[in-house]
Amino acid sequence: MPHGQAASDSSHDLPEPGRVAELERQVQALRAELLEAQKMTALGELVSTTTHEFNNVLTTILNYAKLGLRHTDEPTRTKALEKIYGAGQRAEKITNSVLGMARNRGAEAAPTDLSALVAETLVLLEREMQKYRVQVETSYETERRSMVIANQIQQVLMNLLTNARQAMPRGGRVIIRVAEDPQAGTVDLVVRDTGEGIPTESLPRIFEKFYSTKSGPDETGKGGAGVGLSACREIIEAHGGRLRVESKVGVGTAFTLKLPVAQETVLAPTPKLGLPISAASNATA
């Protein structure tokens, strides 16, 4: 290309239908790149949260180890060992949660226990919720699994939980519910907070890209960019699901993820040797 000549868009050389198809392809590619960038941002926040959690555990272990070394009386040393043991159990929970998330890094949808996914996520956010005086309540009302890409749903869940915590600067409650909706053929994951609520005029716009009701990131560096909820909706809709929101100022906000139920095969009973299935069933009745 001669120096100073601008690169041309190859779509201009195509007939009109081909140009539209090429532009649509470019838009889809840009959306995929944006989603991947948002995933990396979420991963960075997760690494930061996990590192902070491990640092808290190590601080506890070191402080009580020093206490046990300084004092030789049995009650003090027993207390120190109990605290160290408790911190070790906490570290084990964090490690298991991180390993669970690592197992969920696949790119293919698979039958997923949403209740277990919630539990793993809450381990990493437990101290953050405690710090901001947020009580978390869970209600697991179904064992039915959902057909999803687990790490993407976990990304959505962490975003919604962070939003809920930020909506309650003076503390409050988060209620998480997992239940089946047989009529809709979905497993529903609901995240409800008792926070400030979203103003009526803002509610229709919260899923728009780069729209945010926040002035900027909080002291933890999270939120305010306006890409979180937009990405959440795209992820849920890509799963064939829906993301709904209800909110009332001064009462709180509830986000509902309606995700497809996994169609798991139920194996037929093994017939007794020499008997057809119907006869075997009668024999065991």
Task: Describe this protein with a few key phrases.
single chain, 285 residues, alpha+beta, Helix Hairpins, Heat Shock Protein 90, 2 domains, 5-stranded mixed sheet, two-stranded antiparallel sheet, 7 strands, elongated, disordered C terminus, phosphoprotein, HisK_dim/P_sf, histidine kinase, nucleotide-binding
Topology summary:
Layout: H1 16-70, H2 74-103, E1 110-112, H3 114-131, E2 134-140, E3 146-148, H4 150-166, E4 172-181, E5 186-193, H5 228-238, E6 242-248, E7 252-260, H6 277-284
Briefly characterize the structure.
By secondary structure, this protein is of the alpha+beta class.
Overview of this protein structure:
By secondary structure, the chain is of the alpha+beta class. It has 2 domains: 16-94, Orthogonal Bundle (Helix Hairpins); 109-260, Heat Shock Protein 90 (2-Layer Sandwich). The protein has 6 helices and 7 strands, in the order ααβαββαββαββα. The chain has helices spanning 16-70, 74-103, 114-131, 150-166, 228-238, 277-284, and strands at residues 110-112, 134-140, 146-148, 172-181, 186-193, 242-248, 252-260. Strand 6 (242-248) and strand 7 (252-260) form a beta hairpin. Helix 2 packs across helix 3 and helix 4 runs antiparallel to helix 5.
The shape is elongated
Order of helices and strands: HHEHEEHEEHEEH
CA radius of gyration = 25 Å
Residue share in β-strands: 15-25%
Number of helices: 6
Pfam family, one: HisKA
Domain Histidine kinase: 49-263
Keywords: ATP-binding, Kinase, Nucleotide-binding, Phosphoprotein, Transferase, Two-component regulatory system
Enzyme class: transferase
